[in-house]
Amino acid sequence: MSDADVDVAQTSTQSIQGTGIMAINDTTATRQVEPGVIGKGRWIERWDPENDLFWEAKGKAIAYRNLCYSIVAEHIGFSVWLLWSIVVVKMYGTFADDGTLTAAGTGGWALTAGEGLTLLAVASGVGAVMRVPYTFAVPIFGGRNWTAISALLLLIPTLGMAWVLGKPDTSFSVLLVIAATAGLGGGNFASSMANISFFYPDKAKGWALGLNAAGGNIGVAVAQKIVPLVIGISAIGLPAAGLIYAPLAVAAAILSFIFMDNLREAKADPKPTARALTHGHSWLMAFLYIGTFGSFIGYSAAFPTLLKVVFDRGDIALSWGFLGALIGSLARPYGGKLADRFGGAIITATSFVVMGIGGYVAVLGVQQENLWLFFLSFIVLFAFTGIGNGSTYRMIPSIFNRLRDQDGDGTAESALEYKRQSAGAVGIISAIGALGGFAIPFIYMWSQRTFDGSIVPALRLYIGVFALMAVLTWVFYLRRGARMQNV
Questions:
Q1: Could you give all domains of the chain from N- to C-terminal order, each with its CATH number?
Q2: Residues 6+ apart with CB under 8 A from 61
Q3: Where do the DSSP E strands lie in 177-303?
């Protein structure tokens, strides 16, 4: 080979390496970088989970490691997001019929039921909105990098809460701003789910995404159980609720930075996420997700307050209110697993039907002033919001696979485009669905103020929404002849 030939070969090799492809100078061909090789900055240039040999030999272990640390960070995020659902129960004052304060809550606070529900709604709403930029952050920064950054951002709501809860003379507007920052914890979910969806093959996505989500969701239950105990034994009282999660947020950031990986195929032009919104099914799934996840997060935030306000049982609210979020969280991966086996649409439709029944029993519990009937009905509701969360999330990649098969051109580039659209849709749908957590506390507040303190009209409204969602699921995803039948 001449010197000129050598120069050309070296130039070609350098050029190809810049795109993530390694040239082998065997004078005959080039080959791609081996899948799963972790390079500088913990970037994996090639990832091929659909290749069974690679998956079993190497891919599964890498994916599982990233899933575990993703769960840790998301768990802390969810806990921070719902911290206000715990502390507001202790901040309520007792008022006479004429509105006169008769007794202040813990730490000298004296919130009304309306103010407490407003704080919960704003924290939930900001969390929903933050999911949009968090979804775009994964392709911009990389999944591992953004997980570490988003965990550090949790210092804002945790330290802010610790500061403001020690100042009961603080204006409600300032309290509202601090509560709004808790929404940063809600944004973590979207970026985490979008990132993890790239790591797993289609056949395992339902279970993996279900575990990732459940690990985060269960942070609500853990916080609702542990934080009241910490407040009770702490010398500083309510501010301890924020302080205990600040070091945990730092730990989550460090662990994700050390042990997680970035996938090159996930770091791309964020335009596929925007293109995912051109499909009508993205919007329909977002509406259905309001019924599942929106219900979960809204009920998780409001359930302790309802037990306190409707039945005047603050002791039950803080001792046992966590069970709803716990059961809903644990049910989520099984919803994904059932969807992997039977199809997401049938599991989702069934969930809406059972949730409607649970809502009807909750109405009976309120009307009969039966605390335990009401409590058990909500446990059923939580369980099937979790199952529905898992099954709806499993439907999303199935829908985009169907779109790929029906509308794609069969090339590798087309397949990657729809995979990126699917990952982006996961984040955007999660953002819109989380708006249910914003609406539910306000609906309860409207019902109380309009109907002499009763939440029955709100519950009846939810039953109607669940019925509508069950019908829509059947029409678009179960009915014979539907384009997306049995996804």
A1: 33-477 (1.20.1250.20)
A2: none
A3: 262-263
Cα–Cα distance list, 98 to 94, 101, 102, 103 (Å): 12, 9, 11, 14
β-partners of residue 92 are: 111
* C-alpha dist (Å) from residue 320 to 226, 296, 362: 11, 16, 17
CA-CA distance, 432 to 286, in Å (whole number)? Answer: 6
Residues in the chain with pLDDT < 70?
1-32, 267-269
Residue 373, both tokens: 């009937």
The predicted pLDDT at position 25 comes to 40
Q: How far apart are CA 487 and CA 480, in angstroms?
A: 12
CA contacts within 13 A on the Cβ side of 420: 23
124, 442 contact by CB (below 8 A): no
Helix axes 113-141, 183-199, angle to 10 degrees: 40
How much is the pLDDT for 266?
Answer: 77
Q: What is the pLDDT of residue 135?
A: 82
Q: What is the DSSP letter of 263?
A: E
Predicted local distance difference test score (pLDDT) of residue 189: 85
Q: Number of helices (H) and strands (E), helices first, in the chain? A: 21, 4
Round the average pLDDT of the chain to a whole number and report it: 88
* Residue in 86, 95, 100 with CA at minimum distance from that of residue 165: 86
Strand ranges (E), 42-149: 43-44, 94-95, 101-103
